[in-house]
Automatic annotation (TrEMBL):
It comes from Halogeometricum pallidum JCM 14848. One of its GO terms (molecular function) is anion binding. Residues 40-49 have a biased composition (Basic and acidic residues). Keywords: Metal-binding, Oxidoreductase, Zinc. Residues 28-49 are annotated as: Disordered. One of its GO terms (biological process) is small molecule metabolic process. The keyword Oxidoreductase applies. Its cofactor is Zn(2+). Belongs to the zinc-containing alcohol dehydrogenase family. It comes from the Archaea. This is Alcohol dehydrogenase GroES. Residues 33-382 form the Enoyl reductase (ER) domain.
Amino acid sequence: MRALVLDAGWNPRPDYDLSDDERERRLAMNSSQTWQHPELAVEERERPEPADDEVLVRVRYAGVCGSDVSMLETDGEGYMHYSAYTKLPTVTGHEFSGEVVETGRDANLFEEGDPVTAEVTDYCGRCQMCRQGFRGHCENFEQVGFTMDGAFAEFVAVPEKLVWDVSELAEQYDDEDRLFRAAATIEPSTISYHGLFTRADDIVPGDYHVYHGAGPIGLTGMNVSRAAGAGKVIAFEPSDERREIARNLGFEHVYDPIEVDPVETMADVTDGAGADVHVETSGAVAATYPVIQETLAEGANVVHISNAGSDPDLALRKYQGNSAQLYGAEGHTGQQVYPRTIRLMAAGHIDNLPIVTSTFDLEDADEAVRRAAERVDGKVLVEM
Ligand SMILES: [Zn+2]
Ligand SMILES: [Zn+2]
């Protein structure tokens, strides 16, 4: 089968303290410290065999994520930007839809032909993190498209416990192609869903939500916020193209943070109240946190989702004075985040199709990642 394979040179930085696991398994916990000169190419690979607890999925669509881009981008010394987990070479791609074509000996939740998507993080269920309910932080995790072969390929094998049936999307998407396109955007939607509703505590209908950054995660998040009954959804995004996509989704409070004064704009839009929910989806934290801290509504929730390379100055007194909370949100495994996101899509409360702005064939999947690196698209999909 054809597959998009990422490889790089294992060359840990001299001052990086490698763990035993990293040394023995070449499983990078911080890829930006270990992998140099990444390369991405469409290659011929063996079709995977599903293990006993896995299902084999014929992939229909897979979305390019910011993490796929940052695994290809490098710093001045050629080290990968991506700072989380990888084991290379690997087939990348983790936001996907497809049909089950084969099931492992012990896998009985799905049947051939079922339309599905899957969670990214495989968890053991036995470690302390898993037993506390933090499966996304499993101590023995694997990740589809990062440490195990992913979905920019004709077929992907995934543990059945990560797989979710998406057939109810047919209530909204009568055309099968549209159904599979929409299903490939479930994963990015779950990132914000998890941040807003399993991490933050008391987000209620009528809250004002503001997104700092309207890239693919911000745009899909704005759809989640609207579906959840936000009073207003506000966004700051410097890219003209991305602001246009947000407006096409029906959002009217979308601003260029370079052109307007975001603090003044927030005061206008919220009539001086500030935002109840602040979502950091840009990574440009040195610019966004000063704005967030000046525009906290009383009791505001700040949900930190982006992967920033550095830390902002935190004005703790502002949080104290506004009874505000700062929630770190990472991963989105378990807690029924996927099935509830699927329900919102099936009910027509979330439609991500207008966010999809480019589609590439699998044979050009490396070009799809380079296109996403231009940071002007909503979501770039690869069609298998
Ligand atoms: Zn992703
Ligand atoms: Zn575990």
